[in-house]
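Hello again,

I reread your note about wanting to compare the complex against the isolated chains. To keep things tidy I'm splitting this into two emails, and this first one only covers the full assembly. Below are the input lines as submitted, including protein chains and any nucleic acid or small-molecule components. They are followed by the predicted structure of everything together. The single-chain runs will come separately.
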Amino acid sequence: MTQSLQPPRLRLQQFLMYGFLLLSALLSLFPFLWMVISSTNTTADINQGKFTIGSALLENIHKFATLVDLPLVFWNTAKIALLATGLTLLIASLAGYGFEVFRSRLRERVYQLLLLTMMIPFAALMIPLFTMMAKAGLLNTHWAVILPAIASVYIIFYFRQCTKAFPRELLDAARVDGVSEWKIFLFVYFPVMRSTYAAAFIITFMANWNNFLWPLIVLQSTEMKTINLVLSSLASAYFPDFGVVMVGTILATLPTVIVFFAMQKQFVQGMLGSVK
Amino acid sequence: MANIVMKNMVKQYDKAETIRNVSLEIENGEFVVFVGPSGCGKSTLLRMIAGLESISGGELYIDDQLMNHRAPSERGVAMVFQSYALYPHLNVAENMGFGLKMNGVDKQEIARRVTIAAKTLQMESLLDRKPKDMSGGQRQRVAIGRAIVRNPKVFLFDEPLSNLDAELRVEMRLQIAKLHHELGNTMVYVTHDQVEAMTLADKIVVLRSGQIEQIGSPLTLYHAPANLFVAGFIGSPKMNFLEGRFRSYQQGKATIELADGQLITLPARDIGLAAASPVTIGIRPEHIALTGDSSHFRIRFQSEVVERLGNATYLFGNSLGTSGFKIHIAGDRSVKLYEDLDLVIHTADCHLFDPQGIAFGIREVPAGDALS
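Full-complex prediction:
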């Protein structure tokens, strides 16, 4: 039906819908736009609310590079994010697969208990977790950030739900073919569930990359810190240089943006629960 | 090749028994079909043979070896599934060789077996394709090929043609029959389609609610069904059932009174029925004619629906108080709606069932057909 043939009421509805979507898009994009523009301005300009491209970009980048050991900070953040993500996917996918494929009454009870733990706020877990890491001698190490992160009940739940859509005949066919359970998981389940893994990777990577509170608590020395902690300390200085902070924020945001856009298709497929 | 022996097999889920004391022997090289309505346990029984379901009670022997606690891969079976169960990320050759590869078989041996299976099923040109790029019939052939490469003792088919269209089903049925003829393996086939059962089987096992109702050759089940259930299940359209009363028994024949007062005499066993006991007379739609001689008896029929297919005519209506009465007439016949007709039936075509639904009529099965 062409535009001109649509009844006026439908056209009004479409106008309102697109108007709302445009407004939402602008509101979502505005902070990024502000960040990019502010990275080209001095603190004084930013404080005055300047919203045009400035000429201080190179100066801000130079200052940021001088203040922050960029390779070390990025390495710390990437190491934590990738290790935590990899281990989370490994453990959560095995757990989700196990809960769904090898059902029993006892396993259902364990699963329900795990789900209950999702209701416990992180604030309530911080102190016992801190005590555990201290007793284990892991404070001020990256493992203190990684280990608590890999026990993600949400990702176990996500994998279990996605495994419900996995065709059981493939498991039966593999078992009749004499394939062991481990090989079934590696060579049948994993390739078929690639989009699920991709979506879980994006969610988990972004969560670990952006993790702030727990690293703030357990990472004490400068050489251990992640990009978010470094940016936070720059922003909370007595005289913060917001232009420099914005440059740092852009650099901190880039990896997650790249990962998301690179794996967007798989993310959508994974969230829709589509199995190959 | 191998024989299969089941002794009092039971399958329980919690307290519910889905398979109840099933005992059955399948000979070497036999093509046996498990048939029955949905939920009768035929797929469960097949999966118990395959090792995909545990056996709650009884014993299963394949090739005279007890298999109750053996893994599926140790039973010498290969299975073809209803939904093909092809690995979507692998091409045809990889699908067929996957099990062998996972079990450490030499690459050259895998390639050799895949080539032979592909030739048998005329699939050489499809080896590089992925399942998503193939039709249903092609996928099913790949699934069969995957079973062939394992050189199993027994082939198990779980409703392999259910997802195919009618034309493809006929074609694949012929392929499976040809495969059995060529390979000679023992094959166990599950279907709810009685046409597949009748055309493929050496022996049919009719199941209902987890129990065997009858075991026999296709023609035995057609000509001499053991009870009302088998009689109604085998044959399309379904057998017609008329109510009657037992009157007397003499010299190998039972006299039955029909609802219109007619008395007919049918060969039967003497099972000690009391006079006036309710009995059921079964007549297949294709055994009813519109003309006949004095050796036939006649009943009144009113047609309600007429279906003219060109090569056959189906009439649906009422007769002797039984609604849903069906007649199959060869060729094209013009019959008016609500027309009253005299139907002609030969007593030799009648089936007789006692008040419990068990057949007690004496029926002839065509010569040369194995009766069990």
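For quick reference: Chain A has two domains: 1-33, 62-272.

B.
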